[in-house]
Structure formats: structure tokens, C-alpha cells
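Researcher: Here's the sequence for the chain we discussed earlier.
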Amino acid sequence: MQRRELRKPLGGAEFAPDTTYLNSASSGLLPARTAAALRAAIDESASHGTMGRDYFGPAAASRAAFARLLGLPEERVAIGSSVAVQAAFVAGTLPPGAEVLVPEGDFSSLVNPLAIRPGITLRTAPLEDLAEAVRPGTALVAFSAVQSRDGRIADMAAVQEAARAHGARTFLDITQAAGWLPLSVAGFDYVACGAFKWLLCPRGATFMAFGGDGDEGGAAAWPAALHSGWVAGEDPYESCYGPIRQSAATARRFDEPHAHFSYVGAQHSLALLDEIGVAAIHAHNTALADHYRAGLAELGLSPVPAPGSAIVSAPGLADVESRLAEAGVRVAMRDGQLRAAFHLYNSTDDVDRLLELLRP
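Model: Thanks. This is the structure I predict for it:
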């Protein structure tokens, strides 16, 4: 196989895995700086408790870093624990009888909270037809920017335009996109992101950005903060007992009481991504994915078409997962397809090793 441009890992000494790790679509590797910060935080908790000496500092730094990553004001970003909780919140904002449109086979954490909400009608359409499927009665279009199963990239601009034309709100999940795919999300009403994959954060760090009416009418036009607790108060320490007297003026009113260690790690992982830059990571990841696709073609294998994606899924390889695992190559099987995901810590050598193991 003709070798394309040699790609060495990005991030330098931050990564030294003892596996060939091609499974960032399941969870990312922690940078060395993040792991060190977590160890220090755990040591600190032995004397200062699991909220640490500064409970809100790392969360605030993570919020600001995530906002910079997307080019949004940090006042529009809330922190949480999972996309499923955030999807349940969005479901709770919908009136009885609302129609929600989602792509066929999108990730359950996004879809299921909408599907089980009483009074909601859930309608599906193929991803490639999602924009055309929006109609006057549609209240919300919820979809992933990049599909977890096979890496297909949604036409986000087309869906956004169609939703706007029909008066529907939009809920975009960027869990499989943020950190490697350049994104423009300013016009979406809700943008959720689990940060433990491509953003390399500990599990438990999740973000939600608010747009739409929040841009036009300020915080007063946002929906009610249905799951708010004491941290959602303008002064959290004055919001510990009884109803909150004054909610935060920013999207912090939608915060969940956060897992401290997750955000201790998140601030360091997001800082690394900021240093490297999404544009450089995108070029690196997609070059590796293209190299892999070319190698699959030489082996007579056809991956699911997902041009421009860092995720490559190929059918007909269900029997190789255990052999790859024994060789120290970490990939995933999803819906009968071998899924490989290429990120900044991968190299051309990683791709070639995987391809060599796939040879009959």
C-alpha cells in the first residue's frame, strides 16, 4: 500500500499509551497533565473533602474553555453530568402534543429522553433527509452532528435553515464532533456535548450551550431551569435552603451540582486542545481516516460512506474484534460494524498496524 503523508501524534509527551488506541468515539485518552491534576485533587480530598478547596474554580475554567472552543460567550454555557439529563431537560420544555423529529438510529442518550416524555410524538427520518422532513407541525429537531454508529456528518446548516423556516427549535448533540470537527453552532437553540470522548475529559464533564431566544430576549426568555439546585442561584451559598430567591443571570442557572474531579480534569484537557487547535486536529484526524479508508479499499472492504469524518465503520469484520484486542488494538464493534476513530494521539503507524491485522 502506498503510504500517504506520515502523520505523527500531536500532543508530544502528553500521550504514551501502551495500546494502539483507536476508540476515541467511545472515550478519549486522558492527557498526562489531566491525569496529574486528578491525582493531586484526590490527594487534596483526603484533607479537604471531595469538593476540594475550590469547588467552583475548575468548573468555571472549564466552562470558559468550552465556550472558547465553540466561539460562544461563556455566559451561554451550562455544565452538567450527561447528555441524557440535558435531553430530558429539553424534553421537559416541550408542550403536550409536540412533534419531535430525530434521525433514524441516532444515539439513545439524545433520543430516548425525548421518546419517553409523555405527550410527545417522536418522528424519525433518514439522516440525509432530515432537513426535508421538517414540517410546519415540528416543534423540535434533535440530532447529532456526527453519528456515533458510523461517523456520518449531518448537514447542520440545512437542518438549521429548515427548522427556522418552519418555526421549530433545534437541539444539536456535538459529543462526537467537538474537539476535532470545526463547528458553527451559534444559531442552535440547545447544544449538548459529552466531553469524555474527543475533548479528552473525565467522564462526568458535560456542557450545554443555549442560543435562540437567549440571544434575543436575554435570560428571561430562556425556559425554566427544571432541574436547578443550589448551584443555579446567583449566589449559590445563599441558595442552599428552600426555593432559590434569585437564579443566576447567565446559563449557569441550568448548571447541575457538578462532579468536582471531572471538571478538575476538564480544565486541563480543554487547555491542551486550545493550545493545539481544532483546525490542526481536524487535518490530522481526517488524514489518518482517509489513509485507513484507502487501505480498506485495497483489502476489498467498503466502509460506510462518511466523507470527511474521523470515524470509519466497516461491515463484514465482526469476527476480528477479539484478535485485535489480543494484539493491543482498541477499536469498537457497533451494529455489526468495526468502528475505528482517529484522534490527535494516533499516527500513520497505528493505521498501518490495524490494516495489517485485518489482512486475511
